Amino acid sequence: MAKKGQTYFCEICRQKVVVTKAGFGVLVCCGQEMRSADAGGMMATWTAVHHKPVDGVKFHCNVCGQQIDVIVETTGILECCGQRMQRIGETSAK
Ligand SMILES: [Zn+2]
Ligand SMILES: [Zn+2]
């Protein structure tokens, strides 16, 4: 289960997100489970590069309430609990 503040990334499209509200669901991108960047391993260096969150791009899961901030946005489809995550906070007002 994801924990608040944990970083996850997709090995396929390299989308990267940070959990802002933990849920029980498993984060999925491109049809496979996203990996925790905090687990170390070969992606540790790449994930250590600090990116600023993409402005206003957040997603949440309607089922478990999990919420994430997108740090590296790609065209990969984010899913949680077997369904697409809902994009929120989409304000063009800046
Ligand atoms: Zn969920
Ligand atoms: Zn992906």
Automatic annotation (TrEMBL):
Record-level Gene Ontology MF annotations: iron ion binding
Tagged with keyword Iron: yes
UniProt keyword annotation of Iron present: yes
Protein name: Desulfoferrodoxin N-terminal domain-containing protein
Superkingdom of origin organism: Bacteria
Desulfoferrodoxin N-terminal domain segment(s): 3-35, 58-87
Keywords (A to Z) from UniProt: Electron transport, Iron, Metal-binding, Transport
